[in-house]
Amino acid sequence: MQERSESRPALSSPEMRITIECNGDIFRFSALSETVVVPVRQVEIQSFFAIGAAACLMESQTIEEQERYGRLLHTYLFPEDFCQLIDGDKPLTLILDRSSAAFPWDMTCLHSAGKRVFFGPDLKLTRRFRTMLAAAPGIAPPLNQSLKVLVIADPAPEPELQLPGARREGRKVAEVLENARKQNGKLQLEVVSRIGADECDPVEILALILNEEFDIVHFAGHGVFDEANPAHSGWVLGRDCILSAQEIFRARRVPRLVFANACFSAVVREGPALTADEMNRHLAGLAEAFFERGIQNYIGTGWPVADDPAVTFATTFYEETLKGETLGEALALAREKILSEGSTWGAYQHYGQVDATLVARDAKQ
User: Could you tell me the pTM of the whole model?
Assistant: First the structure.
């Protein structure tokens, strides 16, 4: 096994990278850009306050709350000299371990040049992992003038596991993609949708993922995370059926983007309801399982999201990426679109490359 070198491609545009490692009450920060290298700074805190600030952000309903606790997260955790490194004109990438990935960094807030700056919408925050490679990563389809998309939504047959909001999201995403196909004659876009239990035969879905070469897989439904064996974590297709990272690991070609609005609900597991912090940790673990396989970009939700803003977020994101926008720009615009509708905008976390695109530039309309 060899350590992934922070999944570091050549910097194609000015970008600040901050590495954050967490071990109990100790946070370690270091930074890298084209012109700046900052060695490790160690910050000792009380986890109670850091976790409390994160929980307040996840449960926040107003911009005022988000600014208050977002600034607290920044002021309490970040070393003072790092504040001077963050430039609102440069994208920010955080290199994280699984513990530090559990924090809602997208909602971190600071004041720069007299204005409020959130890491997510304003700095186009992207995450990457410091991790170990366990298997040969799959190969993503090439970037060209074609796009093949699989949409899976609300697949479980059990009534208690069904999510009408997920079904609505799946239909809307499929509709946005179909409209893009009709409007852009240069883009060859194929959409395969499986929405609702009647269309979601687990064996057929596995066959689609393993046999077809999808550029994008969009999932809306329940997710589960197994702390003891992360490879067994994945998406709930039924009470006794999980489409896990272990199954997806068998694919020789992996999607260039996985977008998973996967709710980590107590409905699918025994025991007390998960706390917001635990749900965020589950997203980090699930994202890491996909990331290790070679998925170049993974977008997931760290806690339950409101149905209407979730639909708006997903549709705005796809509308913008199919125009040729980078993932970072599309995510920033999608977050801004729902910024006033509670904390849903902060739940979406992107692991991957801020400047990645889904269509080749000459495929734009």
Answer: 0.86
Confidence class of residue 5 from pLDDT cuts 50, 70 and 90? very low
For tokens 């298997």, the residue is 135
Distance of CA 250 to the CA centre of its chain: 22
Count CB atoms within 10 A of the CB of residue 58: 21
Distance from the first to the final alpha carbon of the chain: 44
Task: Give the tokens for residue 144.
Answer: 């060209």
Residue 179 has pLDDT above 60, yes or no: yes
Q: Return d(Cα 342, Cα 355) in angstroms, integer.
A: 27
Residues 6+ apart with CB under 8 A from 122: 88, 332
Output the CA angle 73-351-143, nearest 5 degrees: 150
Name the residue type at position 272. Answer: P
Q: Which residues of 32-52 are buried (b: 16+ CB within 10 A; e: fewer)?
A: bbeeeebeeeebeeeeeebee
Lowest mean pLDDT among 22-31, 85-94, 265-274, 331-340: 265-274
Question: How many CB atoms are located within 10 Å of the residue 248 CB?
Answer: 23
Dihedral sign computed on CA atoms, order 53, 281, 103, 59: negative
